[in-house]
Amino acid sequence: MVYSADYIIQQLVNGLGLGSVYALIAIGYTLVYGILRLINFAHGDLLMIGSYAAMAFTLNLLLPFPVAILLSIAVTVMIGLVVERAAYRPLRSKPEETTLVTSFAVSILIQNLATMILSPQPRSFQVPSYLSNMVEVGNIDFSVMNIAIIGLSALLLIALTLFIKKTKLGIAMRATAENMNASVLMGVNINSIVRTAFIIGAGLAAVAGVMNAGRYGRIEPMMGFVPGLKAFVAAVIGGIGSLPGAAIGGLILGFGEILFVGFLPPELSAYKDAFVFLALIVVLLIKPTGIFGKAEDRRV
Amino acid sequence: MNKPLELKPSQTRSRLSGMRSKPALAIYAGVLILLLIVANFTLNDYYLRLVNLVGINIILVVSLNLTNGYTGIFSLGHAGFMAVGAYTTALLTYPLARKPLLFPQMPAWLQQIELPFVVAMLIGGVLAVICSFLIGFSVLKLRGHYLAVSTMGFMVIINVLASNLTDFTRGKSGISGLPKVSNIWWVYAIVAITIYFVWRLLHSSYGRAMLAIREDDLAAEAMGVKVVRHKMFAFASGAFFAAIGGSLYGHLITSINPSMFSYSMTFNLVLMLVIGGSGTISGAVLGSILVTLIPELLLNKLERGVELFGVQLPQMYGISQVLMSAALIITIILRPKGLLGK
Question: How far apart are CA B46 and CA B48, in angstroms?
């Protein structure tokens, strides 16, 4: 089958948009994992909280969209911090399987609480008209939203990189990820580091949630779980614990998914979730540390 | 006056194996069988189904314990193996008369097969074991989180296959009208076999090697334990019983669809194991009983809205999962080893 150049460019931009969303979610996983060795399954559900909050602020309070996004980030961060304090902090020194089960439980708890309070019915999610328009460049139509998603994600990634590299808190975060005990001895306040990681992760998840909701136009209580899992796969592919890894992994996954849906025969596109996890298993076998990850020593 | 503490042979045995003496065990078993007979003839269909569900969950959780509790392989793929068993058995036992109608695209040889339940169930178990070898040889090298997530990946892959291989599985709508084979005798005979198998395994050299791997796989390997082989064995036996449990489950509900063998099933099984106490048979059994019965008998009423102390509570769809997952988090924080864990 022959595809026109326009179609290919359009699909690439779509892949970039989807990949940016995955990258933003994957960063939340990677930050928390780097510091706590905790896979926070509930991270995906923060997407849902973010998008419901944004919808409530725009529809019920009639706030402008950017303000609603900022407020929804605040709400999501609050919930992320509550989860950290209530469920994860008491288990900080426990084996990783224990924390994994806990985060799974937190995820189910949030999903069902949302189902209970917000009703299981999906709702439509409307973005302002200036975002849902299309712009035409040459012969190709781009959705403004996709471009906004890509731009905003790039901006956030650059800001985050600067924060991690240059600020005192960022340096302390990297030190803690490297060696928690040594950083405690150097006077790093672990609790504030963990809180920072959860604040950044939840904030980015809220943004990604709104983006995701905008892309699909509808939201429901279970909407965050599967994108969350996929973003986790992205983080592992890039090398969990590494920021550029999360970004690259997210983009790989985004492009891969669009490739599946846009270029392969339609019978195959239903299998795309299976291929995401097949990719995960293959990556773990060939290079368990991912593209940018560092190997950890094991001693008896 | 320091008389050395003397132990009778029966006492030493009970200390070693953690089981009571044989006559006591026989009495327990007798009482249990009697209770099951009484249950079978007095309970109505709904409660009988619950009793069977408890039994099936015991099979699933006791076998999940082989990997997650004893060997330290934290698998989240049990539901995937259940699906393999359930679908295989369903396809092989489906009545010939209705088969071509339901599966018009299916190859002719499969359309003309109708096997007895036991044979089909065993074939399902063997298929699950083959799957566990395929997935295990690649995944069991991994540890901790990575292992957990890749086994979950296996579950997702099976789920996607079940939703899309419509010629065989009828996709998301699933297969209904299975013969209702699972009854109290089938279920509890297999419960007994499962528990006996796991108990014997634990007290064999295989079991001790598995425990050694759980405590420290590097140290176990240094002591000469063949880590991969033992992990594989635990994983494959777990898969076999998961498939059997899945077959019984399908033939109890009499219909199957992909979403039955998905995240929520995985989560429920882990919930039962962790609440009861992973690494013990009694914990797995207690967990299965509690986590099956409490939501079904108490919490479902809350979901529909119930009058409590004269106050009419509203319908709260989802509250049972909310309370159960909260219970899990609290259990992990307060009793990390579960209710009966050592």
Answer: 5
Query: What was the pLDDT predicted at B242?
Result: 94
Using pLDDT thresholds of 50, 70 and 90, give the confidence band for residue B237. very high
- A116–chain B nearest CA distance, Å: 5
Residues B159 and B102 in one domain: yes
Asked if A98's CB is within 8 angstroms of B336's CB, the reply is yes
What residues make up the domain containing A89? 5-286
Whether residue B29 lies inside any domain: the answer is no
Taking only residues 144 to 183 of chain A, the set having a beta carbon closer than 8 angstroms to any beta carbon of chain B reads none
Taking the CA of residue B54 and the nearest CA in chain A, the distance in Å comes to: 21
Q: What is the pLDDT of residues A9-24, one digit of tens each?
A: 888 888 888 899 899 8
Q: Does B139 touch chain A (CB under 8 A)?
A: yes
Q: What pLDDT does B308 receive?
A: 67
**Chain B residues with CB-CB distance to A271 below 8 A:** 160-161, 164
Structural domain span for residue B76: 51-261
Tell whether the model's pLDDT for residue B14 goes beyond 60. Answer: no
Q: Same domain, yes or no, for B69 and B143?
A: yes
Q: Does B165 touch chain A (CB under 8 A)?
A: no
Of A37, A101, A280, the CB nearest to B274: A101
In a domain, A129, yes or no: yes
Give yes or no for B313 touching A (CB within 8 A). no
Q: Judge: A273–B142 Cβ closer than 8 Å, yes or no.
A: no
Does residue B336 sit in the same domain as residue B273?
yes
Helix, coil or strand: residue B176 = strand
pTM for the model: 0.85
- If asked whether residues B247 and B310 sit together in one domain, one would say no
Last residue of a domain, one of B243, B261, B279: B261
- Asked if A38 and A89 touch (Cβ cutoff 8 Å), the reply is no
Domain count, chain B: 2
Domains held by chain A: number: 1
